[in-house]
Amino acid sequence: MQSLSRHASGLVRVAGALLLLLSACAETPPGPAKLSLKPVAFSDLPGWPQDKPAEALPALTRSCDALKGKAPDTSMDIAGKTGDWQTACEALANMPIKNDETARIFFEARFQPYAAESSDKSEGIFTGYYEASLRGAKAPDATYTTPLYAKPRDLITADLGEFRAEWKGQRLTGKVEDSKLRPYDDRATIEKNSLKDRADILAWVDDPVDAFFLAIQGSGRVQLADGNTLRIGYDAANGRAYVPIGRVLADMGALEKPVTMQSIRAWLAAHPERAQEIMNANPSYVFFRALNGDGPVGAQGVALTPERSLAVDPAFVPLGIPLWLDTQDGKGAPFQKLMVAQDTGGAIKGPVRGDVFWGYGPNAEAQAGPMQSKGRYFLLLPKP
User: Fold this and answer.
1) Buried residues in 254-291 as b, exposed as e (16+ CB within 10 A)
2) Cα 127 to the chain's mean position, in Å?
């Protein structure tokens, strides 16, 4: 809040520069991609009778609490297909018994499934993410040399929809220099200690590669040298475009497809002299905040539920709605579960695209890392 007030006058002076910077720095929605929805029956959902839908009720309850009686921010693609969210959420809160049988009855009575398609294609790609584990300390030493930064005090994010209606959903991130809004420091610049005196450091960790993948996952637990645990989550980013370094390594011929997190880590470990160079190929940089209580917290502002929370593209799928996911897990086994859209991601773009939150621990990492599965989902919308 202090950062915004400090630069408010400068932001007014540079509003005219927004259009010039838009093409380079704004997060723009996909171009011609469209979401189309086809109503289906619950019997058409692969694996619906075998799931344990009661496991998804805590996640949906959190989303209902976040909505507080208002409907999700629905896109034009699903406008007119949704019924009364408040009634559905009240019915969930008033369920006297919450088990798989009553949960299944609740969804079948209150919701209508819709098969999601994009350009007549029902399949998309589904990946996974997890809560990372790191080793660190509150002060640097010979072991702990890599900083985890809090949001810089001079970082500004502008909602362009406040300037023009046609820019709704687009953001611009930068800093004010000489009364002009300029792009924020990229990864390579930040790695040269450009944030000294501009951002607080939450902790120092012992592995820059772990820190890099923490940013991709968005949340993690730092096991501190003093025996305590620091839980951190995404707070902001520098506004630079995300570049997957797996693609960089594949284009170099260093890795064969499909590229996984495990194969990227193995290459970086085998080539320490080039590790920072490759990581700097991704100019995007993430800043964190300390978390208290349940976590990690997704883009909807609620704690995520392992194997029940899904990151989606909010340009097509509103946060807070339940979905039926039909895909494969990181080991190739069927993954057919009731999920709730509660998070987003820089690489999660398109009408049929998702990222499964696997939780914390070795199994979560083993599932999330190699998961690159074709699949489809069905939006569950309240009946009119």
Assistant:
1) bbeeebbbebbeebbeeeeeebeebbbebbbbbbbeeb
2) 11
The tokens describing 261, both together, are 């997190």
Structure tokens belonging to residue 234: 């995404």
Q: Which pair of tokens denotes residue 269?
A: 């470990």
147 CB-side CA count, 13 A: 19
- Phi, psi angles (nearest 5°) of residue 300: -80, -10
- Round to whole Å and give the CA distance between 7 and 25: 19
The 10s digit of each residue's pLDDT in 250-294 is 999 999 988 999 999 999 999 999 999 999 999 999 999 999 887
Copy the structure tokens of residue 273: 């002299």
CA count, 13 A, side-chain hemisphere, 198: 14
* pLDDT tens figures, 287-343: 999 998 877 999 999 999 999 999 999 989 999 999 999 999 999 999 999 999 999
Cα distance between residue 233 and residue 275, in whole Å = 24
Can you give the pTM of this predicted structure?
0.81
